[in-house]
Design a protein that fits this description.
Belongs to the CENP-I/CTF3 family. By secondary structure, this protein is mainly α. Helix content is about 50%, strand content about 0%. Helix 4 links the parallel strand 1 and strand 2. Helix 6 packs parallel to helix 8.
Protein backbone atom coordinates (compact mmCIF):
# COMPACT_ATOMS: atom_id res chain seq x y z
CA UNK A 1 0.00 0.00 0.00
CA UNK A 2 0.93 3.68 -0.20
CA UNK A 3 1.72 4.30 3.44
CA UNK A 4 3.76 7.49 4.03
CA UNK A 5 6.86 5.67 5.28
CA UNK A 6 6.87 3.35 2.27
CA UNK A 7 6.48 6.32 -0.07
CA UNK A 8 9.47 7.97 1.60
CA UNK A 9 11.54 4.81 1.16
CA UNK A 10 10.53 4.46 -2.49
CA UNK A 11 11.39 8.11 -3.12
CA UNK A 12 14.86 7.47 -1.70
CA UNK A 13 15.32 4.54 -4.09
CA UNK A 14 14.03 6.62 -6.98
CA UNK A 15 16.51 9.39 -6.17
CA UNK A 16 19.58 7.14 -6.38
CA UNK A 17 18.34 4.34 -8.69
CA UNK A 18 15.48 5.73 -10.82
CA UNK A 19 15.22 2.57 -12.92
CA UNK A 20 14.15 0.52 -9.90
CA UNK A 21 10.99 2.55 -9.20
CA UNK A 22 8.49 2.82 -12.03
CA UNK A 23 5.41 4.08 -10.15
CA UNK A 24 4.54 7.75 -9.79
CA UNK A 25 5.09 9.18 -6.33
CA UNK A 26 3.37 12.28 -4.89
CA UNK A 27 5.32 15.51 -5.19
CA UNK A 28 4.89 16.41 -1.54
CA UNK A 29 5.42 13.90 1.24
CA UNK A 30 6.73 13.79 4.77
CA UNK A 31 10.54 13.59 5.06
CA UNK A 32 11.67 10.44 6.85
CA UNK A 33 15.33 10.38 5.79
CA UNK A 34 17.75 13.20 6.42
CA UNK A 35 19.74 14.21 3.35
CA UNK A 36 23.31 12.91 3.51
CA UNK A 37 24.47 15.87 1.42
CA UNK A 38 23.41 18.45 4.01
CA UNK A 39 26.84 19.04 5.60
CA UNK A 40 28.54 19.23 2.18
CA UNK A 41 26.01 21.76 0.86
CA UNK A 42 26.34 23.87 3.98
CA UNK A 43 30.13 23.78 3.75
CA UNK A 44 30.12 24.77 0.06
CA UNK A 45 27.67 27.60 0.70
CA UNK A 46 29.89 28.85 3.51
CA UNK A 47 32.97 28.88 1.26
CA UNK A 48 31.01 30.60 -1.51
CA UNK A 49 29.75 33.33 0.81
CA UNK A 50 33.18 33.79 2.39
CA UNK A 51 34.84 34.20 -1.02
CA UNK A 52 32.20 36.70 -2.09
CA UNK A 53 32.98 38.83 0.95
CA UNK A 54 29.49 38.71 2.40
CA UNK A 55 28.46 39.55 5.95
CA UNK A 56 30.06 37.62 8.84
CA UNK A 57 28.70 34.10 9.09
CA UNK A 58 27.64 32.42 12.28
CA UNK A 59 26.18 29.22 10.93
CA UNK A 60 27.61 25.95 12.23
CA UNK A 61 27.95 23.27 9.57
CA UNK A 62 29.40 20.60 11.83
CA UNK A 63 27.22 17.69 10.71
CA UNK A 64 24.15 19.87 10.76
CA UNK A 65 24.40 20.65 14.45
CA UNK A 66 23.06 23.73 16.20
CA UNK A 67 24.65 27.15 16.40
CA UNK A 68 28.08 27.27 18.07
CA UNK A 69 28.34 28.62 21.56
CA UNK A 70 29.72 32.05 22.38
CA UNK A 71 33.38 32.37 21.49
CA UNK A 72 34.16 35.10 24.00
CA UNK A 73 36.30 32.74 26.07
CA UNK A 74 39.19 31.24 24.19
CA UNK A 75 39.81 27.51 24.53
CA UNK A 76 43.45 27.97 25.47
CA UNK A 77 42.49 29.71 28.71
CA UNK A 78 41.31 26.26 29.79
CA UNK A 79 44.87 24.92 29.54
CA UNK A 80 46.16 27.04 32.43
CA UNK A 81 46.11 25.10 35.66
CA UNK A 82 43.54 26.76 37.97
CA UNK A 83 42.95 26.41 41.68
CA UNK A 84 41.08 23.23 42.49
CA UNK A 85 38.26 25.21 44.07
CA UNK A 86 37.28 28.76 45.05
CA UNK A 87 39.12 28.85 48.35
CA UNK A 88 40.68 32.26 48.13
CA UNK A 89 38.94 34.39 50.76
CA UNK A 90 41.26 35.49 53.54
CA UNK A 91 38.79 34.74 56.29
CA UNK A 92 38.76 31.05 55.35
CA UNK A 93 42.47 30.65 54.58
CA UNK A 94 43.40 29.35 58.01
CA UNK A 95 40.47 26.97 58.02
CA UNK A 96 41.49 25.38 54.71
CA UNK A 97 45.15 25.20 55.70
CA UNK A 98 44.01 23.09 58.64
CA UNK A 99 41.96 21.01 56.23
CA UNK A 100 44.98 20.25 54.05
CA UNK A 101 47.08 19.42 57.08
CA UNK A 102 44.66 16.63 57.96
CA UNK A 103 45.62 14.80 54.74
CA UNK A 104 42.10 15.03 53.30
CA UNK A 105 42.89 16.83 50.05
CA UNK A 106 45.89 18.29 48.26
CA UNK A 107 45.39 21.42 46.11
CA UNK A 108 46.41 20.61 42.56
CA UNK A 109 47.86 24.09 41.95
CA UNK A 110 50.56 23.29 44.54
CA UNK A 111 51.66 20.16 42.69
CA UNK A 112 55.11 20.94 41.29
CA UNK A 113 57.30 17.80 41.43
CA UNK A 114 56.99 14.07 40.85
CA UNK A 115 57.83 13.23 44.51
CA UNK A 116 54.94 15.48 45.53
CA UNK A 117 52.67 13.47 43.24
CA UNK A 118 53.80 10.19 44.79
CA UNK A 119 53.29 11.45 48.33
CA UNK A 120 49.84 12.94 47.69
CA UNK A 121 48.41 10.77 44.94
CA UNK A 122 45.77 9.33 47.28
CA UNK A 123 44.39 12.76 48.23
CA UNK A 124 44.79 14.79 45.04
CA UNK A 125 41.86 16.98 44.00
CA UNK A 126 41.52 17.42 40.25
CA UNK A 127 41.04 20.92 38.78
CA UNK A 128 37.67 22.23 37.69
CA UNK A 129 39.04 22.97 34.20
CA UNK A 130 39.81 19.58 32.68
CA UNK A 131 41.67 21.14 29.75
CA UNK A 132 44.58 22.00 32.04
CA UNK A 133 45.32 18.27 32.32
CA UNK A 134 46.48 18.10 28.68
CA UNK A 135 49.58 20.24 29.25
CA UNK A 136 50.47 19.06 32.76
CA UNK A 137 52.72 15.94 32.81
CA UNK A 138 52.12 15.34 36.53
CA UNK A 139 48.35 15.18 36.08
CA UNK A 140 48.80 12.91 33.05
CA UNK A 141 50.90 10.64 35.29
CA UNK A 142 48.03 10.70 37.77
CA UNK A 143 45.58 9.65 35.04
CA UNK A 144 47.85 6.74 34.17
CA UNK A 145 48.12 5.58 37.78
CA UNK A 146 44.58 6.19 39.02
CA UNK A 147 42.08 4.72 36.59
CA UNK A 148 39.18 6.88 37.68
CA UNK A 149 36.43 6.70 35.06
CA UNK A 150 34.94 10.03 36.13
CA UNK A 151 38.19 11.82 35.22
CA UNK A 152 38.16 10.38 31.71
CA UNK A 153 34.47 11.16 31.27
CA UNK A 154 35.02 14.79 32.27
CA UNK A 155 38.03 15.13 29.98
CA UNK A 156 36.29 13.50 27.02
CA UNK A 157 33.18 15.63 27.41
CA UNK A 158 35.23 18.84 27.50
CA UNK A 159 37.44 17.74 24.62
CA UNK A 160 34.51 16.72 22.45
CA UNK A 161 32.82 20.08 22.96
CA UNK A 162 35.96 22.08 22.20
CA UNK A 163 36.84 20.06 19.09
CA UNK A 164 33.36 20.61 17.71
CA UNK A 165 33.31 24.34 18.45
CA UNK A 166 36.88 25.10 17.28
CA UNK A 167 37.18 22.93 14.16
CA UNK A 168 38.21 25.38 11.43
CA UNK A 169 36.71 23.41 8.51
CA UNK A 170 33.40 22.57 10.24
CA UNK A 171 32.50 25.88 11.89
CA UNK A 172 32.05 28.61 9.30
CA UNK A 173 33.05 31.67 11.31
CA UNK A 174 36.18 30.11 12.79
CA UNK A 175 39.20 30.99 10.67
CA UNK A 176 41.95 30.89 13.31
CA UNK A 177 43.77 27.82 12.05
CA UNK A 178 46.91 28.48 14.12
CA UNK A 179 45.11 28.18 17.44
CA UNK A 180 43.28 25.03 16.36
CA UNK A 181 46.57 23.49 15.20
CA UNK A 182 48.05 24.19 18.63
CA UNK A 183 45.03 22.58 20.29
CA UNK A 184 45.32 19.42 18.17
CA UNK A 185 49.06 19.29 18.86
CA UNK A 186 48.44 19.40 22.62
CA UNK A 187 45.96 16.54 22.32
CA UNK A 188 48.44 14.50 20.29
CA UNK A 189 51.24 15.05 22.82
CA UNK A 190 48.93 13.96 25.64
CA UNK A 191 48.04 10.78 23.70
CA UNK A 192 51.74 10.02 23.17
CA UNK A 193 52.36 10.56 26.89
CA UNK A 194 49.52 8.25 27.93
CA UNK A 195 50.25 5.80 25.09
CA UNK A 196 46.55 5.59 24.23
CA UNK A 197 44.08 7.46 22.08
CA UNK A 198 41.15 9.52 23.34
CA UNK A 199 37.68 8.30 22.40
CA UNK A 200 36.48 11.91 22.05
CA UNK A 201 39.23 12.54 19.52
CA UNK A 202 38.31 9.38 17.61
CA UNK A 203 34.67 10.48 17.43
CA UNK A 204 35.75 13.91 16.21
CA UNK A 205 37.81 12.36 13.39
CA UNK A 206 34.96 10.13 12.23
CA UNK A 207 32.54 13.08 12.16
CA UNK A 208 34.81 15.72 10.66
CA UNK A 209 36.80 13.79 8.04
CA UNK A 210 33.88 13.78 5.54
CA UNK A 211 34.17 17.59 5.48
CA UNK A 212 37.98 17.76 5.55
CA UNK A 213 39.79 19.01 2.45
CA UNK A 214 43.06 17.21 3.24
CA UNK A 215 44.94 20.49 3.59
CA UNK A 216 43.78 22.29 6.74
CA UNK A 217 45.82 21.14 9.78
CA UNK A 218 47.01 18.14 7.77
CA UNK A 219 49.98 17.04 9.95
CA UNK A 220 47.97 17.38 13.16
CA UNK A 221 44.96 15.46 11.81
CA UNK A 222 47.07 12.59 10.49
CA UNK A 223 48.92 12.37 13.82
CA UNK A 224 45.60 11.99 15.61
CA UNK A 225 44.64 9.26 13.14
CA UNK A 226 47.67 7.26 14.29
CA UNK A 227 46.20 7.04 17.83
CA UNK A 228 42.73 5.69 17.05
CA UNK A 229 42.09 3.03 19.74
CA UNK A 230 42.48 -0.63 18.86
CA UNK A 231 38.94 -1.44 20.01
CA UNK A 232 37.47 0.50 17.10
CA UNK A 233 39.08 -1.58 14.35
CA UNK A 234 35.75 -3.03 13.01
CA UNK A 235 34.38 0.47 12.30
CA UNK A 236 37.56 2.00 10.95
CA UNK A 237 37.01 0.85 7.36
CA UNK A 238 33.70 2.62 6.86
CA UNK A 239 34.35 5.67 9.03
CA UNK A 240 38.00 6.37 8.17
CA UNK A 241 39.34 4.56 5.13
CA UNK A 242 36.48 5.53 2.83
CA UNK A 243 37.02 9.25 3.31
CA UNK A 244 40.81 9.03 3.24
CA UNK A 245 40.67 7.01 0.02
CA UNK A 246 38.84 9.79 -1.83
CA UNK A 247 41.49 12.30 -0.77
CA UNK A 248 44.32 9.83 -1.35
CA UNK A 249 43.61 9.32 -5.06
CA UNK A 250 43.08 13.03 -5.77
CA UNK A 251 45.99 14.52 -3.81
CA UNK A 252 49.70 14.99 -4.24
CA UNK A 253 52.41 12.39 -3.72
CA UNK A 254 53.37 14.11 -0.46
CA UNK A 255 49.85 13.66 0.89
CA UNK A 256 49.85 9.99 -0.12
CA UNK A 257 53.13 9.42 1.74
CA UNK A 258 51.80 11.28 4.80
CA UNK A 259 48.70 9.07 4.92
CA UNK A 260 50.75 5.88 4.59
CA UNK A 261 53.11 7.06 7.35
CA UNK A 262 50.15 7.79 9.61
CA UNK A 263 48.62 4.36 9.01
CA UNK A 264 51.98 2.71 9.64
CA UNK A 265 52.19 4.47 13.00
CA UNK A 266 48.61 3.43 13.73
CA UNK A 267 49.56 -0.21 13.15
CA UNK A 268 52.63 0.13 15.38
CA UNK A 269 50.55 1.65 18.17
CA UNK A 270 48.01 -1.15 17.87
CA UNK A 271 50.75 -3.79 18.03
CA UNK A 272 52.31 -2.16 21.10
CA UNK A 273 48.91 -1.93 22.78
CA UNK A 274 48.18 -5.57 21.98
CA UNK A 275 51.50 -6.67 23.46
CA UNK A 276 50.89 -4.71 26.66
CA UNK A 277 47.43 -6.20 27.21
CA UNK A 278 48.25 -9.70 25.98
CA UNK A 279 47.59 -12.60 28.32
CA UNK A 280 51.01 -13.99 29.40
CA UNK A 281 49.77 -17.53 28.78
Amino acid sequence: GMQPHLQALLSLYKLFCPALVTITLPAKMKTYFKSSEGPWKAAMNAVRQRNQGSAPLTQAVFLGTAQPQSRKRKWNTQLVLPASSARTSEEHTEKYCDLFSTDETFPVEQLQTFPQLLQNIHRLEFPSQMGSVLTNPLLLHYMNCVRDESIYLRLYYWMGQMLQEECTWCVVDNTNETEFKSFLENIYKAECFLQEGFSACEEFLYKSLPLWDGSCCRPEVLRLVSWIPLSSSPEIKSYLYGHLTQLFFTSSLYFKCSVLESLKELLENWLNCNVIHMDPE
